[in-house]
Automatic annotation (TrEMBL):
Protein name: Uncharacterized protein
Keywords: Membrane, Signal, Transmembrane, Transmembrane helix
Source organism of this protein record: Mytilus edulis
Signal peptide positions on this chain: 1-18
TM region positions: 293-314
Phylogenetic placement of the source organism: Eukaryota, Metazoa, Spiralia, Lophotrochozoa, Mollusca
Amino acid sequence: MLSFIFVFNLLHALNVFAIDSDEWKLIFKAATGGNGSVYELFTGPDILNVDNIHAQSLLQPVKEHFKSDIVNQWSELGISEVLVRIHNNGEEVAYFMFDGVGSNKTNWFSLARLKQSSYADLYNSSTNAPINFFSIIGHQKPSRRVYRSFYINSIWKGCSKDIGWLNILDVNSTWGCRTWEAVHLTELPAILYSPLQTGAHYEEVASALLAESMSVSVRFDRSNMTCVRMCSTPVQQDASSYCYKPCDSPSVIDVEQKVEQLKEKLTVDRKSTSMYKRSLRSVYENRTSAKTMGIMGAAIIASVIGLFVFFDCLRWKQNNNQ
Ligand SMILES: *[C@@H]1O[C@H](CO)[C@@H](O)[C@H](O)[C@H]1NC(C)=O
Ligand SMILES: *[C@@H]1O[C@H](CO)[C@@H](O)[C@H](O)[C@H]1NC(C)=O
Ligand SMILES: *[C@@H]1O[C@H](CO)[C@@H](O)[C@H](O)[C@H]1NC(C)=O
Ligand SMILES: *[C@@H]1O[C@H](CO)[C@@H](O)[C@H](O)[C@H]1NC(C)=O
Ligand SMILES: *[C@@H]1O[C@H](CO)[C@@H](O)[C@H](O)[C@H]1NC(C)=O
């Protein structure tokens, strides 16, 4: 019987690894009308709403921001990819995927690191749309009382001809372009995005620019994640789950300890995982390596279980024969 317990423990432990390395971990969410500056929250040292599951929901619009401590530990965690998603009416309406390898808290959000996007003219463009802003700090102009963060913009031609993809009109703004931006000064921070397949001539689609939320999720380096140790520094992610700082060299994993401490985390992860799978149907999920690993893992586990069952049966048979 002990062998069965061991196998189940092993199963759980492996499951934890699979989730840790494959799933997008939500680490930040900015909400239109949320409390406080998006720029200051992201770049500052604070965390927010880590124990508030509603603030972390992308499906139900809750006007609260969320920030995990993972953002503050950015350079330490072996982040491989970063996904920025725009949500409206509980649905993903646009995304940007970035190369996160070797990046820090702020410099990952750049054109040079962009790998994929829902906007055809931004990623792999043949039209070569010009870009005048692509940064988290964006355009902050205290003298004009305008603060635009997470700003991806193409051209400025005097407000009425501005073209862009993303613009968070942040708190402290008291001015905005009259026809398409100033109307949102009553619900700052306001997340404005192009509702088209390309950058938008903002004024032409002025009534459709506002989004509910912008989220930032990350994926960790898989080879690094397989050597996560319980003894290394925990980083709080939400009320009941922790991410662990990857260690430098492969080490023996203490299965008993890991299972003991991650039992709670596992149940939380299972729930959010199925939710994620339902909400994410974009191209960036089409990775065969993850599936292959899953099948391989299942095959190995099955053969281990088979072996133990075989030995248990053998022992049982011997006992009965005596
Ligand atoms: C907004 O955040 C500030 C601190 O940043 C806090 O003092 C205040 O109570 C918050 N307001 C609401 C409505 O949550
Ligand atoms: C693991 O992460 C470190 C930085 O955290 C990186 O330098 C290294 O290349 C990663 N390992 C692999 C195999 O990619
Ligand atoms: C991130 O790296 C850039 C250089 O690419 C540097 O200018 C910036 O200060 C760094 N930011 C942080 C928060 O370390
Ligand atoms: C991007 O451009 C490269 C080189 O022009 C091409 O090989 C690749 O297929 C393009 N990818 C997409 C998604 O269009
Ligand atoms: C916004 O205003 C608050 C209070 O008025 C101030 O503390 C904060 O530094 C301002 N933020 C920026 C980015 O200027």
